[in-house]
């Protein structure tokens, strides 16, 4: 086996964790599950499959939790792979990692993976740009940026490559679960947008291409931009070709979610204006978020 460890963050993921671990077990036996005190069978399932399970109280976002894992897990492999519990590696990707990882030499420290999305049981082929994400990195060469939403790995140095195969994001939970989760995401996205404008947080991060696109989006008029984004995804990017599932996905994620973010921004603006102290107090009081 290649010298690679896998880190999976979990909270009540009994629906997904077995699929995720069983796939990745063919790549490595160094599987770490960092659990935020799940109340379901996540821990029992992961342990029964041979994963090393540790628990840490949820710190508020994935970036802090993953960086905690990097600091506290006993990782002795050359490479680290980060996966979500509702994701899994395809057989083609496992084969490619096995074949290529042994041949990669410095200065390559990071590897981008292509992602395919399954929504309501259907592969979503249209409406979105091709997604590749930095998910494999040499030990001690990357950490997660400290943002409230769209956390991403940042390499401390070196070069990157992209694999040809892909992993799959296939969440099996209900639409109710999806909307509840994205309601939580919306306030985090709003905090990110406020931080871009008012510098609420102490850390600043180098803009990625995706963040530059969001900077353009942020300059568009509130509420109109969500509608424009839906039209872009559903019409211009041919999202309508993915049938009913495609419409639901692009409407909810492209329009409903973006409008919800703007609604939360307007709510905060009406209550606090641009007063950073008031905004922080408002977030603490109404959303239990401390900046």
Largest sheet: 9 strands, mixed
Taken in chain order, the helices and strands follow as: EHEHEHEEHEEEEEEHHHHH
CATH topology of the largest domain: Spore Coat Polysaccharide Biosynthesis Protein SpsA, Chain A
Oligomeric nature of the chains: single chain
Number of helices: 9
- Structural domains: how many: 2
Structure report:
By secondary structure, the protein is of the alpha/beta class. It is 43% helix and 23% strand. It folds into two domains: 4-170, Spore Coat Polysaccharide Biosynthesis Protein SpsA, Chain A (Alpha-Beta Complex); 175-287, no CATH class. A hairpin with a 2-residue loop joins strand 6 (108-119) and strand 7 (122-124). Helix 5 (175-198) packs across helix 8. It starts with a strand and ends with a helix.
Q: How is this fold's topology laid out?
A:
Blueprint: E1 4-10, H1 17-24, E2 31-35, H2 42-48, E3 52-55, H3 62-72, E4 79-84, E5 87-89, H4 91-101, E6 108-119, E7 122-124, E8 131-138, E9 142-144, E10 153-155, E11 159-170, H5 175-198, H6 209-218, H7 224-236, H8 243-272, H9 276-287
Parallel strand pairs: 1-2, 1-4, 2-3, 6-11
Antiparallel strand pairs: 4-8, 5-11, 6-7, 6-8, 9-10
Features:
291 residues; alpha/beta; Spore Coat Polysaccharide Biosynthesis Protein SpsA, Chain A; 2 domains; nine-stranded mixed β-sheet; two-stranded antiparallel sheet; 9 helices; Glycosyltransferase family 2 protein; Nucleotide-diphossugar_trans
